[in-house]
Amino acid sequence: MGVRLLVLAVLSVALMVVDARFTLLKPVRSQMSLVLMESYTVTDLPERLWQGVASQFGSRTELIAENEKLKTEALLLQGRLQKLAALTEQNVRLRELLNSSALVNEKVEVAELIGIDPNPFTHRILINKGERDGVVLGQPVLDARGLMGQVVELMPYTSRVLLLTDSTHSIPVQVNRNGLRAIASGTGNPERLELRHVADTADIKEGDLLVSSGLGQRFPAGYPVATVKEVIHDSGQPFAIVRAVPTAAMNRSRYVLLVFTDSRTPEERAAEAAKAQEAADGQAAPAAAAAVPGAVPAPAAAPGNRAATPAAAATHGGTTTSGNPAAPAPAHGSAPATHSGAAGSHGASAPAHTGITPAAPARTGTTPAAPARTGATPPAAAPAATPARPAGTSATPARGNPPAAQERQ
Q1: Considering the entire predicted model, what is its pTM?
Q2: Which of 2, 99, 221, 325 shows its CA 20 to 30 Å from the CA of 253?
Q3: Cβ atoms within 10 A of the Cβ of 229, count?
């Protein structure tokens, strides 16, 4: 009997050493959890029955009071939700401008607490969601008030969660008021956390809310962690003593939330954001190309302007050919009429103007007037008009004819 007891004791010690130092027994433990799952259900059955009986025999007055309280809280939460919706939309727009692929709303799943670690120096709980439900190691866990801890051990249908107040756990936080970063560590007391290595001159005071900073990419940013309860400044110490109270109900929460955060690396998120930006640019390019034909009517007036330009050049060219310094005074369109009037009133000048007149219609009528204008430009045409000027007949009638030109205008 004594030998058998000694063998069993040695075997037990060997199993504990192997389980603590190595991972050989991890598959065995996972399979044992399937058997123990039924024992958890059986042991929890009396409490469930008691809760069912108590809920059935609750007084009507308590139910009415609770209903009124819940209505008031729902109204307040709806008011906050309206403001949160606007802030969420604004945050989404800003993140799109920054090409950020971070999630605004994380996916969560409800789990129930089914066991507590009996070791008083270890703060761990057991929940009824495991690897078959998509739970992963390091997954954040929170309750209705704030962060509680993270998953540290996986089994097929259950998981173990290490609470924030465990002496081996730390989480990066920041002060919600001013963004001051710090590390909140567990103390072994379920009602207290401590901030490590906070400078004595740091801007932190009692009542400040500590939220998760998101550093390390283990816990999502922005979730409440604790509230500063006490700040002790010692002039002889380089760091202040900061104590905080967890916002989550570590010893009272029965239902918890498993947060499914984005597990991609920063490089993968940046690559996917670049691909999304390229896709958006590709969709915007056809839309911009389709909008271009609507602006075509503006250049349509260009041919008319180009057609009018040779006519103006031809008219102006006719004025230059005549060599009359008084011609620029009237409009360009009336210059040929003035010259024709001058040719009719003086017979000496008529032959000279008759030689030039056939070129004028060619210049003013069509665009091919350029060759005709070049043919009329030689000095031979200039001497034909020059002899009329000394006689004093060509210039004088031109000055006297502006009324006729004005009537034609």
Answers
A1: 0.50
A2: 221
A3: 15
